[in-house]
Amino acid sequence: MLKEVLNQIKDSDYISKSKIAMNLNKSVDLIEDAFSQLVRMGYIRVNNIDNCNSNCSGCFLGNSCTSKSSTKSIIITDKGKQLLEK
Question: In the chain, N or C terminus with fewer CB closer than 10 Å?
């Protein structure tokens, strides 16, 4: 299931745990646990972007950001990309 979650992350412009849960027919709690495991295993990294003051048109999150106060981005690591290629 971790690889399925990783694929959902890869294919999403905006990461929503509830949407991933719905797509995979799993509970949100199970998806949250999968995210924790993916981080722990080094397949994804969570970046916190606090107090953004940049020009949204130049930002890679510009199309999905709804607030200029705090945003989290999920990065698939090289290790995660290797898993997806298998």
Answer: C
Label residue 78 exposed, middle or buried (CB < 10 Å: 0-12, 13-18, 19+): exposed
**Global confidence as pTM:** 0.74
Whole-angstrom Cα distance, residue 2 to residue 79? 13
Instruction: Return the CA Rg of the chain.
Output: 14
Q: Give buried/exposed letters for 17-26 (b at 16+ CB in 10 A, else e).
A: beebbebbeb
What's the pLDDT tens digit per position in 60-82?
555 655 555 556 778 899 999 99
Tell me the β-bridge partners of 50. 70
**Structural domains of the chain, with CATH:** 2-85 (1.10.10)
The angle at the Cα of 68, spanning 70 to 5, to the nearest 5 degrees, equals 50
